[in-house]
Amino acid sequence: MFQDLGDFNSSKFQVSEFILLGFPGIHSWQHWLSLPLVLLYLLALSANILILIIINREATLHQPMYYFLGILAVVDMGLATTIMPKILTILWFNAKTIGLPECFVQMYAIHSFVGMESGIFVCMAIDRYVAICQPLCYPSIITKSFVVKATVLMALRNSLTTIPIPVLAAQRHYCSKNQIEHCLCSNFGVTSLSCDDRTINSVYQLLLAWILMGSDLGFIFVSYALILHSVLKLNSTEATSKALSTCTSHLILILFFYTVVIVISITHSATMTFPLIPVLLNVLHNVIPPALNPMVYALKNKELRQGLCKLLKLDFKGN
User: Fold this and answer.
1) pLDDT tens digit string along 278-313?
2) CB of 254 within 8 A of CB of 121?
3) Rounded to whole angstroms, how far apart are CA atoms 168 and 176?
4) 77 contacts: CB under 8 Å, gap ≥ 6
5) Among residues 4, 42, 62, 307, which is most buried (max CB within 10 A)?
C-alpha cells in the first residue's frame, strides 16, 4: 500500500493510494444505504434522459428555457455519475481504495459540476427575467446564440476556477495517513490527511464557494425579486398565475441547492463532533438534485407534462 518516498520525489507523495472508509460511525451497516442511493441514482439517470428525449422530440420545446433545462439535465447526470459508481463499489464490494490521480480527478469533477449547476441556475434566472420583465425584447436577447455563449462562459468559468483545488491538494505532503472518513474525495477530507499546512487549500475553497456561489445566489435573488415585482403589477390573473407557476419550480430547486451548499460549509466546522452529518449531506447534495430537478419541472410545467404523456402513449402503442 505504501511506496518509498523516493518514488514520489516529483509529486511529494509518500502514499500510493487513499482508502475511502465510507460513512463515519456506521461502517458496520452502511451497505444498507446502497439501496436508497442506487434507487436515487437510477431515478436521476432515467428522469434526466427522459427530459432530454422529450425536449428533443417536441418542436414546441425548442426554446431557450428548455435548452437550459436540457443542459441542466446533462450536468446533473455528470454530477451523479462522478460519485455514485465509486460509492456503490465501496458499499457492495468493499472496494475502498482509490489512486491519487483518480481521487484528484474526482475532486475536480465534483467542484466543476456543482459550479456548473449554479451557473445554469443563473442562466435560467436571466431567461425568466427577460421573458417576464422585458417580453418584447425576449426574442432578440434570449436566442440560441445566447444559450450557447452563456453555456460556454459558465463551462469555462467553472472549469478554470476549480483547477487550483486539486492542484493545491496534490501539492500537499501525505506522509503516513491515507484513510479518509468519507465515500468520495472531498477537498477537506483529503487535505486533512496532509502532514504540512493546508490553510491555503481551505481558504481557496471557501473563497471560491462564497464568491462564486454567493455571487450566483445574489444575482438569482435580485432577478426573481424583479420578476415578482413585475408579476404583481400584471392586471391579468391568468398571466400572473402562469408566471408564478414557472418561477416556483425554479425557486424550489434553487433554494434546495443553495441551502444544502450553505449547510455543508457550516457543518464542516463540526466534523470532529458529528462527522456523519457533513459526509451524508455532501453525498445527498450530489445525488438528490439530479433526481429532483426533472421531477419538479415535469410536475410544474404544462408543456413538459404534455410531452411526457405523448411519449408514454407512443411507447405504449409501439409495444
Assistant:
1) 888 889 889 999 999 888 887 778 888 888 888 887
2) yes
3) 19
4) 44, 45, 48, 49, 290
5) 307
